[in-house]
Amino acid sequence: MKEVKIGKSRIYILPVIHALAGEEKKVEEAFKKIKPDCIAMALPPEDLEIIESMKENQDFEMSMQHQYYLMRLSQYGKISLPPEDIITAHKLARDNGVAIKPLDVDDGEYADLLTEHVSIIALIRHSRKIKKMRKRKFRATNAEEFVVEWDREINSIKGFREIEEIRMERMVENLVKLGKKHSRILAIFPYEKYDGVVKRLERYKKW
């Protein structure tokens, strides 16, 4: 976990591997240690709304990409669905009266980014790549290495890589804006995005 001080705000970046059982303990420990007045999550607003309205034992529809991802991730540990790290963060915020905010672009903006950056040919290539990911051999020896390797491979097509860069910038910008309203922020990001987020956030230290 990395602490970055921007102005009067302290932002704590916590990397987690979504859907891997046991990651919720990292969230609990970080919350107790930091005592944040805001939890920021690398999720679009729509996903946070789903978590807030979710019923017990509710079924989820997943894309083939996410199904293959979870299937391969399960080789490195038990899977928890819905992701316990996200559920735990939401429960801690609700039970302690702490604000919880989404950082990612909404579905509408993501659709616009796809239209702007991804051609039909790139979409076809991406679809084929996803199918190949099911049987691809990974060099990873643990979950951390796996999620980094998966992320690098799934975003190897230029248009999708450009979208990920834009999303990262947006999330960091939104995090900095939250820093103007909150003094202690626990920001939860996917493990594979951690280094990129910290690097971008460091630019704002003089703000």
Kindly describe this structure:
Helix 8 (158-179) crosses helix 9 (194-202). A hairpin with a 2-residue loop joins strand 1 (2-6) and strand 2 (9-16). The chain has one domain. The chain is built from 9 helices and 5 strands. 27% of the residues are buried. It is an alpha/beta fold and 207 residues long. Helix content is 54%, strand content 14%.
Keywords:
207 residues; alpha/beta; 9 helices; single chain; five-stranded mixed sheet
Structure, briefly:
The chain has 207 residues and is of the alpha/beta class. It has nine helices and five strands. A hairpin with a 2-residue loop joins β1 and β2.
Could you say which structural class the secondary elements and strand pairing correspond to? alpha/beta
Order of helices and strands: EEHEHHHEHHHHEH
Q: Give a count of the beta strands, DSSP E runs of length 2 or more.
A: 5
Oligomeric state of this protein: single chain
* Structure annotation, total helices: 9
Average pLDDT level: 92
Helix content: 40-55%
Radius of gyration: 17 Å
Note poorly predicted spans.
none
- Choose one word for the global shape: globular
What kind of sheet is the major sheet?
5 strands, mixed
CA-to-CA gap between the ends?
A: 21 Å
Strand order of the largest sheet: 1-2-5-3-4
How many distinct domains? 1
Strand content: 5-15%
